[in-house]
User: What shape does this take?
Amino acid sequence: MDIKSAQYSIHQISLMGESLDKKPVGTWFGPNTVAQVLRKLCKFDPSDDIAVHVAMDNTLVISEVKQACIVDTTDDNDEEGGKKDESEKTYNWKPLLLFISLRLGLHEMNPVYIPGLKTCFTLPSTLGVIGGSPNHALYLLGYVEDEVIFLDPHTTQAATAPDQTYHAVKPGRISISQLDPSLSLCFLCRTEEEFDNLCICVQEQLIEASRTPLFEMMLERPPHMYGQLPSGDSTGQPDENTGDDYEQLHRKYDSEDEFEIL
Assistant: This one.
């Protein structure tokens, strides 16, 4: 049930987009904007049980992902009251929700990227893809030949409806060529081993096996890309004082303006 006070409610997502990404409440959020907003909302989640990383510029930098997920769990003082040295420290991996924001064409899907997109649905730890057709968001789960299988998040109903009504009888299908080229790949890596395994599969199945890979992957960010580092997290926090006029605003659907070009 989506209520305003929920950590990742539509209200909080809209408010965070308005206050931090300059997206007025009621306007269209592209896949990259949604990913960035979720990353920022995660910082205020009291459970603090997941790390959200958004890879930008068609590049996955492994060291930046691990920096976000590896948490120092060492008790600073030893039994004698002194500081522990580096060799005595312990680290835990925080489960990772990884978004890789891409634009696979200017106004329509470039056919050269279709094989790579299909491969993404077969990678370990995949959660699918957030994207859709122009001005219509969809959750993409897999593919059959040249069509993707999707669930439509726009189907709403009363919160008191029976549980079985929340399940789709069958998923929808749409031609890959009809997808908006702006999308975001999604992965969930519960352990560092799962992330390392994902990186191996990306290298072997997506990068080395394709003349036109969807994105690049590297251990460290090269010097020429330091000017493109992700912006720091803002300290702004959504609350319940904004969004009262949410339903009164007119939505704007302009794919070329609202989807961000990388």
